[in-house]
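During the first year of the project, the team set up a workflow for recording each protein of interest as an amino acid sequence followed immediately by a discrete structure-token representation. This format lets reviewers and collaborators read both layers of information side by side without switching files. As required by the reporting guidelines, we include two representative entries from the current panel. The first entry is reproduced here exactly as it appears in our internal archive.
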Amino acid sequence: AQTAADDPQAEMARNAVLPNTVLGKAGAKTGSSKKKAARREKASRRRERETLVAAANVEKDLLLGFQPFRRYSRNGLNVRIECVGGDSLGPSDLDFCLTTLRDNMGDFYRNSSWGWDEKSKRAGMQDPVSRILLLREQLDENPAPEPAAEDDWVMVEYPDAASAPSAPSERNLGFVHLQFCIEDDRPVLYVLELQLVDAARGKGLGRFAMQLCELVARKHGMQN
């Protein structure tokens, strides 16, 4: 009688099963290795994004290296742009930012699902990772006096210098509230607010501020 060992076809069939089984295990191992490599790559990219944002947040003055952009002198405006950290925002500047935001956007917020939460807005502006661009109009401290007509009498008073109020040298026209963060897995410079008073609108100041923000974002490697 012929045994299985003597049957060539049976021997071939038995041997054909073994390679398929081994290949199946190898394929499973390869798929698992690819998933692990993908997870490592994803984690590495996340760390790179977090490192970029952390490095950007160290810089308090975002206008370093942008000296020509600290001034805006067009369309009748003479504006100095100053950058301060949220935790360094002075009380008067904070009040200005909140008042301007409330005047410009208060009704919009109140009529939306968000509502107007001034406490939250205040806390956001004072967040240590916030950066505030203050748009300050430079005022002429010593305007030229009107020329006196010939033979006119001119009355000159000399008040006590200590009691005489000093005229402000500048006033705020607007502000930009910025934060570096990760949005949709991308490192970005987020513009939370850009607000101007009525007198500063339509003069190109807002567009100039946005272009400046784009330059700052590029400097720090942020994405669009």
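The second entry, processed by the same pipeline in the following quarter, appears below.
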Amino acid sequence: MGGIHSGTSKQKTISFLAYHERQQQSLCGLHVVNNLLQRHAFTRFSLNRLARKLDKAERRLIDKRKRNAVLHFLTGGRAGWRLDARNCSARGDFSVQVLQAALQSEGLDLVRVTDTDWASRIGESWGFLVHRDDHWLACRQIGDHSIWLNLDSTLAAPLIMSTDEVIALHAGLSSRGGRMTVFNVVGPTPPSPYRRFFCGPVQKLRVNVPADTVL
């Protein structure tokens, strides 16, 4: 999983950087995209613009499907009902459609993980978005060391994931129980922050690995 092969108890320490936005208000949708991309790629305002575009597209779709008849049915005949925005709430919650549109602008896409053929993704997938308990979090490989990080914005710092946790993620399962939805991120891997001069909430992490580790 991490490309690690060991035959000795001796250890060595490797260091790497990780971009990690902390939770602000209800903006986990914003943080999950930026943490996945490992840079400050989007702001609340840029995601709001995407949400408004999606809302308008949905309104036009209803218009094309005899809007008046649809609204009459949906509202039980109340007059003056208009379609409310559904892709962003007043608190800053963004729909999965907004997150997907943001990632598509970066050449990436989201594919929902099912329990079929998940083993084929091991060794190929580099990142996932997870929706659990009305909260979004990102998990991804980082650096040349093929280390997986949990970049949940509610954490004080990114967590290095165990092999069991990564396998569960590929299978769309929760390692701690409960229901969740997992999306595989498809497309070229965004560079890790250590590859270039970087500003922002970047943390330096260290991990001990066997001395004869092949990375």
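For the second entry, the following points were noted during internal review. The CA atoms of residues 59 and 65 lie 10 Å apart. The mean pLDDT is 78. Both points are flagged for discussion at the upcoming steering committee meeting.
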